[in-house]
Design brief:
- The chain has about 375 residues and is of the alpha/beta class.
- The chain has two domains: about 5-140 and about 290-340, D-Maltodextrin-Binding Protein, domain 2 (3-Layer(aba) Sandwich), CATH 3.40.190.150; about 140-285 and about 355-370, D-Maltodextrin-Binding Protein, domain 2.
- The chain is built from 16 helices and 13 strands.
- It has helices at about 5-10, 20-25, 30, 60-75, 90-100, 110-120, 155-160, 175-185, 200-210, 220-230, 260-270, 275-290, 305-315, 320-330, 340-350, 355-370; strands at about 45-50, 80-85, 105-110, 130-140, 140-145, 165-170, 190-195, 215-220, 235-240, 245, 250, 295-300, 335-340.
- The strands form four sheets. A six-stranded mixed sheet has the order 2-1-3-12-4-13, sandwiched between helices. A three-stranded antiparallel sheet has the order 8-5-9, with helices on one face.
- A hairpin with a 2-residue loop joins strand 10 (about 245) and strand 11 (about 250).
- Helix 12 runs antiparallel to helix 15.
- The longest helix is centred in the first third of the chain and has 16 residues, at about 60-75.
Length: about 375
């Protein structure tokens, strides 16, 4: 096992919540907060990445892989470990990060859904993302797929079927609402959103069992768990949420033959995807898919620390071995946005007007009332 693999996985057994730091031997923050006067800031130190998901999931596994490369490229080669703090729709983890010393020895990971929740669902938020420095974000789109047994064998079948079409998701929050809206606009005879599933696996199982007609999953889950079902003829790939480049929705490079949701709308209705709902779709998608896994450091951490992290990350994202390991970890290529590029994607959702925020809240309320 290479040194970077050892570093990134070394804390796996003790990753659950509060045991993670103790199990990995984090350096005393009071003693380390001033850095190393005799050498690089991070020499002899330990950096903790707070991951707001359970150990063993895709984001946790990815963060541990990323941690190993960080350790290699940060001047001084500090140990980089992961602390898992699941709960509260990622808010518990970021609240924990905010309470940690702002000394450059802590980083946090969160998703685009978390970024959107600070605008639409701020209950329990004890942090301000605008006070953090965005170091890097790795993208990942969402796939929409249909049940062949429900008669969905092509995009056109969505508008030809007379039977109700049941679509499943996790929670009807801002991130899910834009996908539900896009499907709602396709012109299906009887579209029925059903929320409350535990994750991509449970949604896929519900599609296979006939409980759902349509499901969604991250592109990485789709490649790992749904593509075999597609190959067996049980699942029909339909569209992706897409990425945003220069304010425009573009196809997921991992699935170049699948239309984006706006393209699907235009194909089925003959109309251009425009108006308030589609503007909000683009803004939320910019945060959600472009920033699927985002890493921050405290904005008031020592400049020497932040500079060292910036320099290391610039090298990590260009490392061919990292790119290969990243792709193998997720099953798909995950585009990287560094620093200001990532901030620009986050700004798309933060710049929504009060009227647009209200539009989302009203749409969610309307769907929940059906």
């Amino acid at each position: 096992m290479s040194p970077r693999k050892h570093i990134s996985l070394g804390c796996a057994a003790g990753a659950a919540a509060s045991l993670a730091i103790a199990g990995c031997g984090v350096t005393n923050t009071e003693a380390s907060s001033e850095g190393n006067e005799d050498g690089p800031f991070y020499e002899g130190q330990t950096i903790t990445i707070v991951v707001p998901f359970d150990a063993g999931g895709a984001s946790d596994t990815y963060s541990r892989m990323f941690a190993g490369y960080l350790s290699e490229y940060i001047e001084g080669n500090p140990e980089v470990v992961v602390e898992n703090v699941p709960g509260g729709a990622q808010k518990d983890g970021l609240n924990r990060f905010e309470r940690m010393d702002h000394d450059g020895l802590a980083m946090a990971m969160g998703s685009g859904g978390l970024i959107a929740s600070t605008i639409f669902d701020s209950d329990g938020v004890q942090f301000d993302l605008s006070e953090y420095e965005t170091l890097v974000a790795f993208g990942g789109s969402m796939n929409i797929f249909g049940s062949a047994s429900a008669g969905i064998n092509s995009l056109e079948d969505l508008v030809e079927l007379e039977e109700p079409i049941y679509y499943g998701g996790l929670e009807l929050n801002a991130s899910e609402s834009v996908r539900t809206f896009a499907l709602d606009e396709l012109g299906m005879h009887d579209f029925q959103p059903l929320m409350g599933y535990d994750g991509g696996g449970s949604v896929t199982a519900a599609v296979l069992s006939g409980e759902l007609s349509l499901g969604n999953s991250t592109s990485s889950h789709y490649m790992e768990s749904v593509v075999p079902l597609e190959e067996d003829g049980e699942i029909t790939p339909l569209m992706t949420q897409g990425y945003v480049e220069d304010g425009e929705i573009v196809r997921d490079p991992a699935f170049p033959d699948l239309p984006t949701m706006p393209e699907a709308y235009e194909t089925l209705t003959g109309e251009t995807a425009e108006g308030t709902g589609w503007d909000i779709y683009t803004a939320v998608t910019t945060a959600q898919t472009n920033l699927l896994r985002t890493y921050w450091v405290h904005g008031d951490a020592p400049e020497e620390a932040r500079a060292a992290l910036r320099e290391a990350i610039a090298q990590v994202v260009e490392d061919e071995e990292f790119i290969q390991d990243s792709t193998e970890s997720l099953g798909v290529e995950s585009p990287a946005l560094v620093g200001e590029e990532a901030d620009a994607s986050a700004a798309a959702v933060h710049n929504l007007t009060p009227e647009q925020v209200q539009w989302v809240e009203d749409y969610i309320a309307e769907v929940n009332s059906r």
